Amino acid sequence: xxxxxxxxxxxxxxxxxxxxxxxxxxxxxxxxxxxxxxxxxxxxxxxxxxxxxxxxxxxxxxxxxxxxxxxxxxxxxxxxxxxxxxxxxxxxxxxxxxxxxxxxxxxxxxxxxxxxxxxxxxxxxxxxxxxxxxxxxxxxxxxxxxxxxxxxxxxxxxxxxxxxxxxxxxxxxxxxxxxxxxxxxxxxxxxxxxxxxxxxxxxxxxxxxxxxxxxxxxxxxxxxxxxxxxxxxxxxxxxxxxxxxxxxxxxxxxxxxxxxxxxxxxxxxxxxxxxxxxxxxxxxxxxxxxxxxxxxxxxxxxxxxxxxxxxxxxxxxxxxxxxxxxxxxxxxxxxxxxxxxxxxxxxxxxxxxxxxxxxxxxxxxxxxxxxxxxxxxxxxxxxxxxxxxxxxxxxxxxxxxxxxxxxxxxxxxxxxxxxxxxxxxx
Length: 426
Ligand SMILES: Cc1cc2nc3c(=O)[nH]c(=O)nc-3n(C[C@H](O)[C@H](O)[C@H](O)COP(=O)(O)OP(=O)(O)OC[C@H]3O[C@@H](n4cnc5c(N)ncnc54)[C@H](O)[C@@H]3O)c2cc1C
Fold this sequence. Notes:
By secondary structure, the chain is an alpha+beta fold. The chain has two domains: 4-174 and 293-419, FAD/NAD(P)-binding domain (3-Layer(bba) Sandwich), CATH 3.50.50.60; 182-291, Alpha-Beta Plaits (2-Layer Sandwich). The protein has eleven helices and 21 strands. Strands 1, 2, 5, 6, 7, 8 and 21 form a seven-stranded mixed sheet that branches. The structure holds flavin-adenine dinucleotide. Flavin-adenine dinucleotide binds next to helix 1, helix 2, strand 6, strand 15 and helix 10.
């Protein structure tokens, strides 16, 4: 196999946009994905909708997108295919999403390898004492294969590449390392969805709380979280909740089984208590349980709660967001929200995507360098897509200028983001 300028491991929103952005700037790019489609959690975990990516500018009162660039290009294509329901929380049909991402990667010239699971990395120590990733090995229908590149991006969500390369990382809350719970999303068909929202939603939530308080439920979640789907009689449920360490393969496997029991519990509960669900069936559950949080790399900068709540504007910002700190309790019941001031936004610094101990590796998506609380804000799909685009662009800048990841200056980041108008307020 040829040597690439860049290998991106993981084809979620962050990895796919990183690959597209780097290829657009002339890099030869291999994008490795273990499933058979791009989109990451939107595909393998049935995650929807896109959480809010717009804000109201205080001076002009104008509604403006914070997630720009390739993500907006993606949204335009989805609207053109009639694959989105509404704004600003955009419900989408993931079947179209997969095709749009196929088109975008093809048009930008990214080599995509599906059904290919990253296994390990070969590394050396550079002159500066930092880790240099030389090649990766991955498993697919051809057996074990390997590929070489000058630069790498870890977009696996779980930090598999940086962990394997030997970079430092942390997991979960600072005091006890517990992470946000895992959730198996599932769908119920033959539901009168309008009636559910009109007549049943409030009532079933009261009853659910009573049963939870009486200790009659397996599921510790405090309410029933449901969304519409593009198919009008389908109700999408993001409402199972399983505690456990997602980096422990046995706990993650047990979580799948526990979540399926919770799915059946929710289904029976709704069928019995919500007239809108009396004829419902379980339509499908996602291929894998969704993991909100696992490993996070130790970066040159670690985003913290104050950065998010005080809406810090970094010199090396690669994108912006205003989604609140939304923590599904690592202890069971409860969801905590810390809101972002109306009309304002926080930014994501380039340095949070640079491992402090590697020189040719970047990290994008939900496993960049941050605290447990800060991660609970920027982890949404529109923001991670833009983190991916920003870093994809910067890998091309690193190549052009012969720079290591940590030698990129804030001025170079600013110039590159401004050239494409990617950061609000710049
Ligand atoms: C249950 C749940 C509900 C959520 N709800 C919302 C919501 O409503 N709206 C919203 O905007 N966000 C939501 N989020 C957050 C959002 O979905 C994720 O934070 C985001 O998708 C992370 O993107 P990513 O690119 O970092 O990782 P992912 O989307 O997880 O992508 C990682 C990719 O890497 C691939 N991969 C993993 N290991 C390997 C390997 N060894 N080799 C090759 N490929 C590999 C995976 O198959 C996957 O495609 C939710 C998350 C969860 C779990």
